[in-house]
Amino acid sequence: MGVNEPESVRERYARRDKHDARYSLLTPAALLALQERQRAMMALFARLGHTDLSALRLLEVGCGTGSNLVECLHMGFMPENLSGIELLPERFEVARARLPEAVNLLQGDAVNLLQGDAVAPAAGSLDIVLQATVFSSLLDDAFQQRLADVMWRSLKPGGGVLWYDFTMDNPRNRDVRGVPMKRVRQLFPQGRIESRRITLAPPIARAVSRVHPALYTLFNTLPVLRTHVLCWIAKD
Length: 236
What we know:
Helix content: 25-40%
CATH topology: Rossmann fold
Shape: globular
Radius of gyration: 17 Å
Number of strands: 7
Order of helices and strands: HHEHEHEHEHEHEHHE
Strand order of the largest sheet: 3-2-1-4-5-7-6
Number of helices: 9
CATH class: Alpha Beta
CATH superfamily: Vaccinia Virus protein VP39
Largest sheet: 7 strands, mixed
Structural class: alpha/beta
C-alpha cells in the first residue's frame, strides 16, 4: 500500500508548535523576511508587465490561515479573483474567518480538488498558482509530482506558478526537506523558470535582528546566507 501523503502531512503538522513565537510578525526577523518577500514579489509582477493586479486570477495551494491571501488583497488582487485550498481543517477555519466571503476557499487535498475542477471552472483558467513552503513539507516524491501536475494544468497560457520555498534541508526538522532548483525543474519540465534567492537564513536572521533589525539587511547582502528562492515558472 502506497504512502498517504496528505495523512502524513496532517500527522507532521500535529507535532508542530502551533504558537511558535519565532514566526510571529511581532518578531523582527519574521517581519523583515515577510517584507523582503513582498518587495521581491512586487518587483516580479512589475517585470512581468502587470501594472494592475485586480484582473488576475490567483489560487494558493496550501493557504494555511490565509496570511498570503491577505497580502494579495493588499497588493491589489480582488477578492472574487482569489482562491485557496487548505488541507488542515483548523487552519482552514481561521482563513475562512479572516478573509472576505468573496474569496473562494476549499478544505481538502489539493490534488483531488483540482482534478475535479473544484476551484477553477475549467482547466487552464488561472493566471497564477501560488505555493509558499508547501512542497518542502511534502516528503513523498510522487505526491509532489502529482500536485505540480495539477497546478500546471490549472494555469492558462501566459500564466505561471509563483513559488516560494527553501532549498536546503533543516537538520533539526525531519518533517521538512529543502527543494533545490534541480527538483523544481523536474517538477515543472515545461516551465520557463526565473528565480531569485531571497530570505536570510532564519537562525541567522533571528540572532542578528535581536542585536539590531538593520543587521538583517547587512547580512542578507551575502547570497550564500539566503535559504529560499522566489520563482516564476511561466507557462508559455
